[in-house]
Amino acid sequence: MKLSYKFLCLLLGFTCFSLLLSLALARWSFEQGFNEFIINQERERLAMLSSLVVEEYKANGNSWENVDLANARFFSSPPERRLRPPHHRAPPPPSASYSAPSFINRSEGGPPTALLDENQVLVSGNLLATDSGREVRVPVTLNTQQIGWLVSFPPATPSSETAKAFSRQQSHAIIIIGLVSFGVAIILALGITPRIIRPFKAIHHAVKDLTARRYESKLPNDRSDEFGELMQHINTLAETLKTQEKSKNQWLADISHELRTPLTILAGEIELVKAGIRAFDNKQLISFDQEVSRLSLLVDDLYQLSLSDIGGLRYQFSPLNLSDIVDEQCDKLRARFQQKLLSLHVCVTQNAVINADASRIKQLLSNLLINACEYTDAPGEVHISVSTSQTTVTLCVEDSAPGVIKGNESMLFEPLFREDASRARRSSGGGLGLSICKQIAQAHKGEISAMPSMLGGVKINVAFPAITEQKDQ
Question: What CATH code is assigned to 226-309?
Fold first, then answer.
């Protein structure tokens, strides 16, 4: 089932449930209000009857004797007429609203009614409660003094045809309102669902294009809600994948070029030897060895980078003093710098402790120093230093001319990056040393950056998180 159908069914189901619940509550509220109305009507009826009962009580000398609610003559006329009947006119006929059966017998249209004295003793009427379980009690008072009670038991359901018709009318109205509301809800759901599903469809097509390596399609960025954020992230993902695709193609082209160059040289020299143009002597063997060594270094660097990318490199972290490793690596490479007519200056701070893998840090230092040695013109100089702060330990390697074009410093860490105009390719190296340094620095939660050096060349900073020597190993 499509998402639009699921959403439509869910919306209609929720609407139907809410509507039924609202109608049920409305019906319950109506019944409660209607029952309260019936009870209030009954209280008014008992209040009218109370005034008549008080007059009868007074006429009997403030006594309940001979007061009977079933006496039809008791309800024959209003109290004033009974106390002072006219001399020239016959009394009016009994009023239907004051008929005794309407007060006493349910069968005659009124609820059962009883008269109690002030001591809750039955005087007249019926005290048998009905199945409604409801009781209406009104006090009978004379001059603010309570002299009795009038009690009735109204039915739980309307007894008159008018009340029943009114109840049926309200029920029909509630049903009609419910049906109309449900119809309106369906129309609104059919109109709203496509608008809500539209972003899902756009995102679906965009992701489908990404899986097919079509990175040119862009989602509209005109929304400010979560859909807008998701669309923006997908656009960013498309740009990233496009850049990665381009970088991968460039990477393959660069690798092919780097491998082709020494292989072409080897193939050409071998052909010359086979043709007898060049003698196969010790000099030729040295040339072969140089090209093979160059290929070996390039393949080894590529292997190191591939292991780092797939997480194949294993690190064994432990607290170590970076200054000690710097001194060790500088001592190993000092002769190489002297052969290149380069002066190596070392300035380190003791207790520069970091959490690192010793072999990888040595590899990083070796790559940085060899890179500076290979890409610095003679005579020149290379400075290496270690400084500490409260939170970081910074390794700095800077050299003299030549430098790099301004703005290209960050590109130095890209694999196989060349800037032939200033730092031309030397006799060794495959252009991957600084890329490996970047991978090692990131694995140690450090940051590596390049900038112009005050010496005229390039300055490379590597910042590591600092720890204390007392930290558990």
Answer: 1.10.287.130
C-alpha closest to that of 379 among 409, 400, 357, 403: 400
Residue pair 67/115 in contact (Cβ under 8 Å)? The answer is: yes
- In the chain, pLDDT over 90 holds for what percent of residues? 15
Q: What is the model's pTM?
A: 0.47
pLDDT at 393: 94
Give the other-Cβ count within 10 Å of 71's Cβ: 13
Check the CA dihedral 30-32-37-41 and report its sign: positive
Q: Give the other-Cβ count within 10 Å of 64's Cβ.
A: 20
Cα–Cα distance measured from residue 284 to residue 176, given in angstroms and rounded to the nearest whole number: 103
pLDDT tens sequence across 242-262: 887 887 777 677 677 667 767
Domain range summary for the chain, segments of one domain joined by +: 3-152, 226-309, 318-465
Please indicate whether residue 147 or residue 224 has the higher confidence score (pLDDT): 147
92 contacts: CB under 8 Å, gap ≥ 6: 77, 81
**171 and 158 Cβ atoms separated by less than 8 Å:** no
Share of the chain above pLDDT 70, in %: 79
The topology under which CATH files domain 318-465 is: Heat Shock Protein 90 (3.30.565)
What contacts 160, CB < 8 A, 6 or more positions away? Answer: 109
Q: Provide the token pair at 429.
A: 């190296």
